[in-house]
Structures are given as C-alpha cells and as structure tokens.
Amino acid sequence: MKRRVNPESGVASNFVMLDSPDWVNIVPLTEDNKIVMVEQYRHGSDEITLELPGGMVEHGEEYLHAAMRECMEETGYEGTGLAVEIGRVKPNPAFLNNHCTTFLWKNCKLTREQKLDSNELIKIKTFAFDEIKDMIKSGKINHAIILNAFFFFSLHLDNYNG
Predict the structure, then answer these.
(1) Is 41 among the domain residues?
(2) What is the pLDDT of residues 21-78, one digit of tens each?
(3) Cβ proximity of 35 and 132 under 8 Å
(4) Which of 88, 104, 109, 129 is 20 to 30 Å from 6 by CA-CA measure?
C-alpha cells in the first residue's frame, strides 16, 4: 500500500501499487514480411498465449538493447541494423508505475538457438500481418500489451505507406 494525495481534491488515501521495472516488446519482421511471435505458458492466466518477444529492462540497460536482447534470446531471430521505437504505453497506471516500449526490427533472420531462462518454454511461430489481424478479431490474441504493440505497428505501416 502507498499513500497518495489526489492533486485536484487534496484527499489522501492508501492504494495498492506495484513497483515494476519497465518492459519492452519487439515486432520482429522477417525479410518476407512475416512477424515472429512466441507461444508460451503464462502463470497469471494459466494458459498458453501467443505474444511478441519481450520482457523486463534490466537495471541500467538501454530499452533498445533490452528489446533486441529479448528477441534474440526468446526466438534466435536477429534483424539487420538497429530496431526502431514505434510506441510507448503505461500498462496499467491504476496500480503499476512502469512503461512498456515497443520496437520494430526489420529483416530478421534465424541466426542462433534460443537462450531461454529455466522457467521458459517458448515455441516460435511466424505469421503475416493479415493472419494476426484475424487472430486479434477472433480473440486468440488478447494480451493488452501485445494489442498495443500491433496498434503501434499498424500506425507505423500507415506512416510508411502513406
């Protein structure tokens, strides 16, 4: 619990707050315009989810480096050049104090084996963006942070194409 004061009303109250490190995720786009995704078990929902590579930013780590590191560790895919930031959100400002920054990494290829943590079991899948849109519409992809990432990706495409 943390005590907070409403800046408008001046009323002080106790609130549940989680102090969380910032997160990153990344849209790895292959040379043939497929998006690399990860399928893994999530303890909170007790189900297997389809997501983008991502994770926590380590203390002192640059967000860009964290995103590219997570992509290579979780998928073995690596892009040419540096990834570019395409968006940033506050995952849930009602009780979280962190940010999630989304990157796009183009021309990704499988260059190495996965380097997973002991609790990770990740399957790699690739999809065209139209397939992903269908999975979002059907509810198969329902992770809020991933939906935000695809929103930023679609805005990036709109700016790139128009």
Answers:
(1) yes
(2) 999 999 999 999 999 999 999 988 999 999 999 999 999 999 999 999 999 999 999 9
(3) yes
(4) 88
DSSP per residue over 96-150, as a string? B---EEEEEEEEEEE-S-----TT---EEEEE-HHHHHHHHHHTSS--HHHHHHH
* Domain span holding position 37: 21-161
Q: Which helix (H) or strand (E) holds 12?
A: strand 12-15
Where residue 67 sits, what CATH number does that domain have? 3.90.79.10
pTM: 0.92
Q: Is residue 12 part of a domain?
A: no
Total structural domains within the chain: 1
Using CA atoms, how far apart are residues 93 and 110, in angstroms rounded to an integer? 36
Task: Answer yes or no: is 4 within a domain.
Answer: no
Say if 9 falls within a structural domain.
no
Q: Which two tokens stand for residue 84?
A: 């570019």
